[in-house]
Amino acid sequence: MRGKSDLAGGGVGALAAMCARHRWIVVALWAAGLATLLVFVRDSGARFNTDVAVPGTDSARAMDLVGEVVPGGGLPDTESIVLHARRGTVDDPLVREQIAAMAAELGKLPKVGGVIDPFNPAGAVVLGVEPISANRRTAVTSVIMKGSALNPDRAAARRLIDTARAYDGPDLQVEAAGPGATALSATTISPRPIIIALVAALLLLGVTLRSRGAVAVCAATSAVATVAALGAIVLISHTITTTAFAPLLAAVVAAGTSLGGAVVVVHRAQSALREGVGPVEAAAQATARAGSAVAYGGFCVTLAMDGVALLGLSFFDGVALGPAAAGAATGLVIITLLPALLALSGPRLLGWTERQHLTTSGRGLPHRPGLRAWWARQVDRRPAGMALAAGLGLILLAVPAVTLDLGGADDGAESTSLSTRRAYDLLSADFFPGLNGPMLVAVERGDGPSAVPVADVVSAIAKTPGVVKAAVNLEKADAGLAVIRIAPREGPRSPAAVDLLHRLRDDVIPRAVAGTGSRVYIGGSTALFVDMAADFRGATTLFLLVILLVVGVLGLLILRSVEIAAALAVTSVLAVLAAAGVLAILFQTDLLTTALGLETGPVEPSMLVLVLVAVFGLLPGLNLSLLVRLLEPADRAGNEPPTRDAQSTGGTEGAGDMQGAESTRNTGGTRRARRRRRADTGPVRRRSVGSRLRGRRGGTPGPIRRHRTDTTPIRRGHADVGHVMLTMNLVMLFLFMAIAAQPSRTMKVIGCGLATGVAIDAFMLRATLLPALLHLLRPTRPGSPTGRTGATGNRTGDGRRAARDGGRATGDGGKATRSDRAGRRRARPGQSSTPGPAGGSPRPVTRVAAFSPTALGEASAARRDGTGRVAQPSPPRHLAG
Known about the structure:
By secondary structure, the protein is an alpha+beta fold. The chain has a 4-stranded antiparallel beta sheet, with helices on both faces. A 4-stranded antiparallel beta sheet has the order 6-7-5-8. A two-stranded antiparallel sheet has the order 9-10.
C-alpha cells in the first residue's frame, strides 16, 4: 500500500497563488458574475416541476386522467374549514350566524373561486359525504381556490386561514385543512430557534478562529458559494427537469461544504502567518494543502449526482442537479475566491494580540491543545478498539434503515400545535379518519359496446369492506372518462388503508373490468405514497452503489491507496445509511416520537431523499481534507498545534516547540513532562543490565523497541485539524437542530435527519473511525526509512536517538571514546553532543524543532551565539514597521 498526502500539486497551488496575487481582480470578477446571475434569475425566474407522482405508475396515470376531466386541466385546490361547536351544536342560532358571516367574508377574498357552507346541499357533492356530522357538532365548509392542488397558492391560503381563524372563539372552534393549509404548516418557521442557532454558531466560530476577520472571510465564502449554487440551479431548471427540492439541497450542500472548507483553509492560513509567512504565500499554501481537498470533494459530489441524473433514478434525478451545482460552485469558490479573500485580509486573520506578538517576536502565540490532543493520543494508543467501536456503532445505526417504513404521513402525525392536526382529529372523531384522505379512481371506458358502465365499477367498489362511500365525482362522457371518489374508513397512513388499496387493485377492479376494454387507475394520497415507496427502494440501492463507486475511485486517485480509498467509500455509504436508520428510530418508535410531540408513521420518500442526498453532499470534501492532512509527512505539516509534551520537553510536537525547548534547556525537564512523554510514546521495553553495561562500555546499544510502529504525524495532524472539523460540524449541527425544533413534522424529519448525519460524520467518522483506520493501515511514504511507519521521527526524543547514532557512528567498530561517552552523559534529554572548542569536552547543543523549513528552521540554523542558544528572531518582513 502506498499513501500520498501531497495532494495539492502544482496546479491548485499555482492557481491559488495567482488568485492571491491578483486578489482585487478576482473579487471584482466574482462580484460581476454574481450580479449578472442575480439579474437573470430575477428576470427569468425558475421552472421547477411540481409533479410528485412516479411516472408510469397507476397513481400518476390516475392524476393525468383527472386533469383531463376537471375543467382547467388540473385537480383544483379545495380547502376545508372544519367547524366545531364548543357548546351545543352547529344548528344553534349564534353558531350558525357566525358560520354564515365567515362564509360571506371568505367569498370576498382574492383567488377564492367559491365557498360552500355546510348547510348548502352542494356541500355533500364537494366533500363526498354529508358535511355535518351525525352528532351535529362538527361541520365542514368547502372553499374552492383558483389554483392547483399540487401547487397551491400559499399567499392566498394564508389569507384564507387567517380570515377563517379570526372567527375562532368560545362558541365556535375553527380549524383548516387541505393542500394549501398542509403546505403552510409544513413550511411554518419559528424564528427563535434560528436566531439562537446563528448566535451560537457565530460565537463558536469566533472562539475557534479568534479573529473577526477570519469569521468574516468564512461567512463571505459560504454566502457566495450558496448564492452561486442557487443561481446555477435556477439556470439549469430552464433546460432540465428539476423539482422544487433541488434549490433546498443546493443551499444546504453549498453552505455546509463551503463553510467547513473555509474554516479549515483559514485555520491553515493562520498557522502559516504565525510562522512568519507572507499573506500571499500563506493563502496559496493553505489553499493548496487544505482547500484543494475540499474542492475535489465538491467535484466528487458533482460527478456522483450527474451520474445519478443520467441514470434517471426515481426521486433522485429531479433533485440530484441541486447538489451537483453546489459541489461545482463550492469547488470554484474555494480555489479562486477564498485565496483572494485570505490575501486581502492578511494579518487581520489573526487577533490583535497575536498580531502584536507576531510583529515583536516573529512568531505567533503558542496555543495549548487541550482536549483535542488528548483525544488524538487515545485514538493513537487504541486504534483497533476505536475503529471497532465506531464501526459497530455505524452498523448498528444503519440496520434500522433496512426496516424503515416508507409511505405517506398525513396531518394526523403532525404536532397538536398545528391547525391541520386539530382539524384531522375533529374529522376523525366526529366523521371517520378516511375523510382526511379520499381515494380517486379514474375510469377510462374506451370505445365500443364492451366498455364497462361506470355504475358497475362504483357498485363493486362500494361493496368492498373498508369503504364508507363511493360515488361518481366528475364525468366527461364524450371522452369516456369518469372520476370516482372513495371515502375509506381508515386514515391515509394506516395499514388498513394500504391493504384496501391492494385489494382494490389486485382483486376488485380486475374482476369489475374483466372482458372489457376499459381501464381503471387508482390515485389519491395513499396510492401515491405506496407507489413512491415501491419505486424508491430500488432507486436507493443504485444511489448507494454510485456513491461507493465514485468516492472509491476519486479517493484512489487522490490518496493513492486502495485500502484508504475503500475505507472512505464504505464509511461514506454507512454514514448515509446510519442517518436513515436514525430517522427510523426517531419517527417509528412510540416513545421517541411522542417525545417529539408527534405520532408514529411512515417516512415520506421525498423527505428521505433530501436527507440522504444532503448527508452525502456534506461528506466527501471534508473527509478528504481530513485524510490529506493526516497523511502529510512531518516535514510538510509545519503548523501543528503543540502538544503538552512539546510545550514541556521541547520535543518535535508542533508550533510551540521553540518555547518548550527553551524551557527544557533552562530547567532540564520536569518529572511530569517525562511521564507525559513516556505515556505519549507508548510502552518501552527496558533494556537488560548487561545491555546497558555494553552500551556504557562502548558496545552497540540495544534498540528501544515499541509495541507498534510510529504514527506520530497522524496523531499530530489529528490534534491539529480535529477541533476545526468539530467546530464546522457543530455549526451545521446547531443550524439543523434549529430546523428540527420547528413545529411541523416535515421540518422535524429534515432537521433530525441532517443533524444526525452531521453528528455521525463529526464524532464517529472524522473524530474516531478515519484516524483510527489510518493508524492501523499506516501507509508507507516515499522516503520513509521504515517499512510501514508514517514519519521519519522518533517518539522517544531526538537527543537520545542522536546520542545512540553518535555512538554507533564513531570509529573502531562502533566503540565510542571515553570523551564521547562523557559528553553524552552530560547531555540532557532533548540535547545532542557536539565537539567542544579546541578539542575540549563536548558541548551540549539544544535541538529545537522549527516551525517550518522556511521560517524558524532558518532562524535556528543561522542565529546562534557562542553559548548555543537561539537568538531572538526578527519580525516577519510583511509585519516589520
